[in-house]
Amino acid sequence: DDALIDELLELMRTQGLDYHLTLRGLATAVRPGSEAWVTRWRDRVALPDDALTSVIERANPLYVPRNHLVEQALDAADAGDLAPVRELADVLRQPFDEQPDRARYAEPPPDEYHAVTYCGT
Questions:
Q1: What is the pTM of this model?
Q2: Do 38 and 6 touch, CB atoms closer than 8 A?
Q3: Are 27 and 57 in contact (CB under 8 A)?
């Protein structure tokens, strides 16, 4: 299992894949170039498709409080608009359930975004 996991992490690194979305995406689709890994992984897991999809979707949230979204909501709140904070909180109440009208909350941060975080914040 360690070798399989290491190979997935390497695929994610070389293809520039988002951690959360890759794990969640194992339930439905895989990026080109990783078919060999997926075949070995599916053989190792040995579960029927619906059971595998269910396990993955229950273990990997689709929506996580990404720094760029939190910063946007906090900036709006500082300017007196609490609607973005409320919407983000509402999305995060059901992080495992698809919310089609809120797809932007599942996207990775823009390439140009670089967060600076501090322990305890």
A1: 0.72
A2: no
A3: yes
